[in-house]
Specification:
By secondary structure, the protein is α/β, with parallel strands linked by helices. The chain contains seven helices and nine strands. It is 35% helix and 25% strand. Strand 1, helix 2 and strand 2 form a beta-alpha-beta unit.
């Protein structure tokens, strides 16, 4: 009996939903989950308020295009109904929630509390990984995230739209040394939007504009094809 229950429990863990913001960390975490054999039934994007400590704000409404790079069905929710949405998934047999947390205890604790209440597993494959190693893994895989938000010393309007590649990683390391930023942007220093999956599928940002507000700004995507 124990063996049968254990097998059912593990099978439930293989069914998952992914929190996908459109950014690099949630994208890489979802790719890793797929490679480990998880059956991701849906990608969930939370549409937050500006300056959310939990979720990406700029271009969250375009995240379904990023989920589409992995052929995942997607759905938008707000912060207030995320728990009820996850409860529905848990009751249907989904056992795992995938997220891209790297270093934020606040984010990871909030997600783990949600999962504990719903008897789900929190899958955070990037947690406490070296932040430069995470960026190198993204670059190695050919994933192309662009900078769509900056809000820390050392970043300017010129950083918006830059692709995180080996050349830009050198610049990020210099910012880290001079200004003490989290090189992966985990402290909210910058946010990203993935435009290439590394598997041959890419997005064209056909129309966008920059909104600059004193010491921070966004590259807002108007049209995607």
């Amino acid at each position: 009996m124990f063996l049968i229950c254990s097998m059912l429990w593990n099978r439930n863990f293989l069914k998952a939903v992914a929190l996908m913001s459109g950014g690099k960390d949630s994208f890489l975490s979802t790719v890793i989950a797929l490679e480990q054999g998880m059956d991701i039934v849906e990608a969930i994007t939370v549409i937050p308020e500006e300056f959310s400590y939990m979720y990406h704000f700029p271009n969250a409404d375009k995240a379904s295009f990023v989920s589409g790079l992995l052929n995942l069905r997607s759905e938008y929710v707000n912060e207030n109904n995320l728990a009820s949405k996850l409860k529905n998934f848990a009751e249907s047999g989904v056992g795992t929630l995938i997220s891209g947390a790297i270093a934020s205890d606040y984010q990871k604790t909030r997600i783990e509390n949600l999962c504990t209440n719903l008897n789900m597993r929190s899958f955070t494959p990037l947690w406490r990984k070296d932040q430069e190693d995470v960026l190198m893994e993204i670059i190695r895989r050919g994933i192309s995230p662009i900078i769509v938000s900056v809000s820390a010393d050392g970043f300017t309007k010129e950083d918006l739209g830059r692709v995180i590649d080996e050349n830009y990683l050198v610049e990020l390391k210099k910012k880290e040394e001079k200004f003490g930023i989290n090189i992966s942007g985990e402290g909210g220093e910058y946010e990203t939007f993935v435009t290439y999956s590394g598997y041959g599928m890419h997005l064209n940002l056909t129309k966008s504009h920059i909104l600059w507000e004193g010491s921070h700004g966004y590259l807002l995507i108007d049209e995607v094809s």
